[in-house]
Amino acid sequence: MRKEAEKDVILHVEGISKHFGGLQIIKHVSLTVKKGERIGIIGPNGAGKTTFFNLLTGDLLPTGGKIYYKGKEITRMPNFRRAQAGIVRTFQKNNLLNELTVLDNLLLVLQRKRGMANIWFKPRNARRWLALFEEAEHLLQTWGLADIANERVKTLSYGEQRQVEILLGIAMEPDVLLLDEPTAGMSQAETNYIAELLRQLPKDITMMVIEHDLDVVFGLAERMIVLYNGSIFIDGAPEEVRSDERVNEIYIGKEKAAGASYL
Amino acid sequence: MNKRMFISAAAILLLAAAPFLFSLFYLNLLAEILILAIFALSLNVLVGYTGLVSLGHAAFFGIGAYASALLSKEWSPQFLVTMLASLLIAAIAAAIIGLFCVRVNGFYFLMLTLAFSQMIYSFVHQSTTLTGGSNGLSGLPSPVFGTLDLSHPVFLYYVILLVFIVMYIVLSLMVKSPFGHVLIGIRENEMRMKAIGYNTTLYKYAAFIIAGAIGGVSGALYSTFNGFVSPNDVYWTMSGSVLIMVLIGGAGTMIGPVLGAAFIVVLETIVSSYTTMWTLIIGGVFILFVVFIPQGIVGFGRALTKPSANRLSFSRKAKALVKKEANQ
Known about the structure:
The complex is a heterodimer.
Chain A: E1 9-20, E2 23-34, E3 38-42, H1 49-57, E4 64-69, E5 72-73, H2 79-85, E6 87-90, H3 102-113, H4 126-142, H5 158-171, E7 176-180, H6 188-199, E8 206-210, H7 214-220, E9 223-228, E10 231-236, H8 238-243, H9 245-251, H10 253-257
Chain B: H1 2-21, H2 24-50, H3 58-74, H4 79-101, H5 106-126, H6 128-131, E1 144-145, E2 148-149, H7 153-176, H8 178-188, H9 190-195, H10 200-226, H11 236-249, H12 255-272, H13 278-292, H14 296-305, H15 315-327
Antiparallel strand pairs in B: 1-2
């Protein structure tokens, strides 16, 4: 790591592996991510994409290898500390506080961000709290969710829940944002909307996106990683990946055989 | 808001006037309800707000009861001393037991709390020298406050009422605070709370210690009030009763556990005067509640009055509160 301790490297993965019993899901993956990079991760189902994210966020611990973040080893750091440190994820399946409102969900993020989560009694500093509510309202407005701020999450449409899921990630003010299929299950219109919002995020946020919608991922990423059977198959520019014959074969093998090309 | 304050004021006034309205029998019944209500409120922090179902909460009730009994017998019957010491001892016990319990969830949490409480039961049941074994401890000196003798039931009632009000206010403030919001978040989705950077284990640990400490206070009041303490107060059936109080009253609400405690104590008193099989009746009532009114008395009342109200959302309430304070 020492030789790579350059300023602009934010995440460095050194030969991590993960196996469940005898099943090797991630095989010795190494990766260096620069600050502000936008990386798309594609690969067929079962390639280990989500498992790889889980290793980066600490939701799973690797069986081998090391992970460095901002030059410090975080291989065994618990997930909530990584979230505090700025490695933030969204989930593949909506994973929200369903009985609570959108604003409740958002406030839980903001009250921690602003160091107010450990107030044990009624808010003392009302002004600070008011600022918190204003911040929440501002975020909701930017994201076009102001109308449903006081709706319970479980009553929202799937697409709206998906937006809340991503909004919570953004509200964390991440340094590294890991988006696990942000547009999965959304309509075309919703997908375009989300893709546009993601494109407009501040450039200093490092982003890694797992995505099956190739239009979205090619529109967003400036670097593509193809995962296949738990290993990095290709790591290169989008054009490179798009034109790679082998990617076509592994990624959409069946469709290819049927005479269609999606890449 | 005004309506709520009016109801609270009326309830406190009524409780304060109780010694002039009721006979001694009913006054003692009321005192018992208040003590068990504190106990149920403390368990509600875990069951209702944090989503941790404990079947061993009698451990802290018993620890508080025995600590207070032993202290008043061996050292000093000063009410403040025995109360604070019991709170502290119960909190320390909760800090030790919680270290193990908060690491697991759901069924395993329930079994682990049960196991610890039964260990404490075995100890008090078998240690004849310290805790009097199966006879428990009796003939406790009546509590004093400074030079004031609290042996008079009316004085004792007021002291219990005061402790109840203080505990109720402390817990209401806590569950409405940012800390309380985190507990609710953990109950709703612990994985999400971790993903947004909360050390949920630490929050659960804090909730466990608070619940244990206040459970200890209720136990100390109980032995002070009764003048004796027996191993039954630590037995798992006691944990079961208080869990039933919380669930029947309405878990995750402040008034629910109080109503649940009142309901069970009154039912027990009425039914047990007619039949010795009163536990059968209590069990039957509990089953009816679980099947037909799972939200408890409070949930049922709310469903009748305002069915669509979003009672779980804390942000709207907090915002109203903050706006009001900022304007002052």
